[in-house]
Amino acid sequence: MSLTPNTFLRSLFARAVEVADPMQSLAAALPPKPAGGVLVVGAGKASARMAEAVEAEWGPCEGLVITRYGYARPCQGIEIVEAAHPVPDAAGEAATKRLLALLATAGEGDFVLALISGGGSALLTAPAGGITLAEKQALTQALLASGAPIGEINGIRKQISAVKGGKLAAAAYPARMLALMISDVPGDDPGDIASGPTVGHSGDAGRALEALQTWNVTPAASIAEYLLRGGDTVTPDDPRLSRTENVIYAAPSQSLAAAADLAKAQGYTVEMLGDSIEGEARDIAAAHAALACKAAPGTLILSGGELTVTRRGDGIGGPNAEYALALALALNGADNIHAIACDTDGVDGAAEVAGAVIDPDTLAKAAAKGIDPSDALDRNDAHSFFAAIGDQVIPGPTLTNVNDFRAILVT
Q: What counts of helices (H) and strands (E) characterise the chain?
């Protein structure tokens, strides 16, 4: 192989992102433009790129899409609004109100195309039951720091939102709706993508309260009281969802498969661990290090999913960088193992960094700079660690989101 291991791993990540680019993948799932009134709405880190891809096929459309700051794309007719992620802000709340007002104009003969991708949970912001934006922001921050898996977090979000858990589709009724989705969740459940704004919810307020207790998160009094009153649930059999179709057209498995094909073409044997791995980043890293140490030379170990970090310190990090740091510590300089761990949306945690690469010299490079990797891990400071040794992966906005990408190369 002519490429260095580091460069090769970065090329695998780039390939995984390329396959999920809406400009490469959305057209095949898009029907001909319907006659009559058409509205395009959406939210997520990939939603502006999805809107751009729609207009490349359909021409100018009326609509409103909310994406993360820095992720806007030029569109011919669809308005793109940027807002905050992962903690919602006033811009997202105002844009969501406008989006709901736009849907209120749709009638039975109209068609609504909803473009949904990961990140939509924060970007679609409409607190229910008198809950304030500040209270929702505080809850979001606490949940993200708790180590709770994304499914638990989204179940709570659905209960306190006026737009998640099928409520966006209910607001569009009686118009016909097609929701095109890019999955960023383990298991590819459409109800979990962006907290399922177009998918009915089978959970309830009591389950949300139990989850808050499980993860030691104390909500504001208004949130607890709202949940105790029963919240507001749009169930899967709600008649208002009868005219909505949900289609996942891009998923993590496709990106992992594309990376696997690239590796096989270079003569590597690929061991696929799956696209739905969840758990504490440092624990999964330790398990993967053990697998790598037993693997034969010429093996590439691929995995995806969504890892979590329980905040223990005050550092700057994210699940992928923390995984990479914990992996480097567990491997302890093994001389033939290299790895990459990145979020395909280009943002690991809240930092504008996708993740990091490690190699047999990672710990030695840190020692040469007087950096203690164990201390960095204890303080959840993985981004600072990799910035100091020059091994961050910073692609900028990728305009898509199919969750974590991890590859371990045994040379």
A: 16, 13
| Span(s) in the chain for CATH 3.40.1480.10 | 5-15+253-410
Domain 5-15+253-410 in this protein, CATH class = alpha beta
- Residue 297 CA, chain-centre distance (Å), reads 32
| DSSP codes, 32-98 | PPPSS-EEEEEESTTHHHHHHHHHHHH-S-EEEEEEETT-----SSSEEEEE-SSS--HHHHHHHHH
Nearest to 15 by CA among 350, 410, 411, 398: 398
Whether 112 and 33 have beta carbons less than 8 Å apart is answered as: no
Distances (CA, A) of 4 to 170, 297, 338: 52, 15, 10
Instruction: Give the integer Cα–Cα distance in Å for 202 and 395.
Output: 38
State the number of CA atoms in the 13 A half-sphere of 188 facing the CB: 17
Q: What is the pTM of this model?
A: 0.94
Q: How far is CA 173 from CA 96, 253, 311, in A?
A: 17, 32, 41
Within 266-361, where are the H helices?
281-294, 319-331
CATH architecture of 31-250: 3-Layer(aba) Sandwich (3.40)
> Which residues, including other chains, have CB under 8 Å from residue 51's CB and lie 6 or more apart?
40, 42, 61, 63, 65, 73, 75, 78, 80, 115
Q: What is the pLDDT along the chain (411 residues), one digit of tens a residue?
A: 478 999 999 999 999 999 999 999 999 999 999 999 999 999 999 999 999 999 999 999 999 999 999 999 999 999 999 999 999 999 999 999 999 999 999 999 999 999 999 999 999 999 998 999 999 999 999 998 898 988 899 899 999 999 999 999 999 999 999 999 999 999 999 999 999 999 999 888 999 999 999 999 999 999 999 999 998 889 999 999 999 999 999 999 999 999 999 999 999 999 999 999 999 999 999 999 999 999 999 999 999 999 999 999 999 999 999 999 999 999 999 999 999 999 999 999 878 999 999 999 999 999 999 999 999 999 999 999 999 999 999 999 999 999 999 999 999
DSSP string, 116-185: E-TTHHHHS--B-TT--HHHHHHHHHHHHHHT--HHHHHHHHHHTBSSTTTHHHHHHTTSEEEEEEE--S
